[in-house]
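hey so i finally got around to running the thing on that chain from the lab meeting. sorry it took forever, my laptop kept dying and i had to restart like 3 times. anyway pasting the input first so we r on the same page abt which one it is
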Amino acid sequence: MVIASRRELERSAAVLAGIRAAVVFDEIVQHVPAESAERAHRAAQAADIDVVVALGGGSAIGLSKILSLRSDRPAGLSIVAVPTTYSGSEATAVWGLFENGVKTTGFDPRVLPGTVIYDPTLTLSLPSELGVSSALNALAHGVDALWAPGANPVSALIAAEGIRMLARALPRIVARPAVAGGDPDLGGGGIRGTFAAREDALYGAYLSANAFSSAGSGLHHKICHVLGGAFGLPHAQTHAIVLPHVVALNASAAPEAEVRIAAALGSSSAVEGLLALRNSVHAPTALRDFGFAESDIARAVELILPAVPASNPHPVTSDDLTVLLRNAWAGTAPGRR
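ok and heres what got predicted. didnt touch it at all, straight out
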């Protein structure tokens, strides 16, 4: 079974040419709605699928995970992930499903892809704005892993290196976006200087997601899952906007993590380093630009507060969340009250 959007199917025809797929499913929707997952599950069952090739970003790979989770096979399905964004979903055993207005997530080894194929050329047609948000989403995996419930010295080292690689790669990709033409091996045409940067970004995304999978989901991801599931906000852009605000909240209570993040960003301050990176690549800064209303803040706080990890370094109150979300909504400086 091949899972890929119509756009991915069209532009990756050469990649898929050698695959004899019993089923091709192209209904790819962010946050993996239960209705879409059920249709894919029925199609997989009807064809007695045992292998899924997921080509695309976190939504395509995320759908393949739900199919594996629901499979009658004890070990789940064999998942071959071919990422075309920097979501990092291919490197985690974390699944997510949107149902009845709520995004539920979980951890299960059956959903971890057994094979991952990284090809930087598959990111060349990724729109610049989405590429920026996707890379910052990947960076958020590394940051959140530093104060997640299962954070440990090994995951911290991996997370810091993932952050460093992504921070190094992203400005280079944005400075020289890919266009048609050029040989990636020779560095010519419209992709001169970006091929190595895209390799670095994929590597950084893998490292950050690997650390996240080991350490678990921290405060940042709990916030973003609520915003995406309950309010329909786009996944990657939400991560890009919210991350500096969470770091500002936790920094003083987690000095070791703050130092690691700052060093990986080449800055004396984690928050300032994130803001400088975000500004340099013209990343989104305000939730209101994506449909989140100021009147939604109170409801969001109600939904987020019960999900706050007990291990979060800074005790989180409803007032903390209100201030954080209001600043993220307006695009104002993190920590401003």
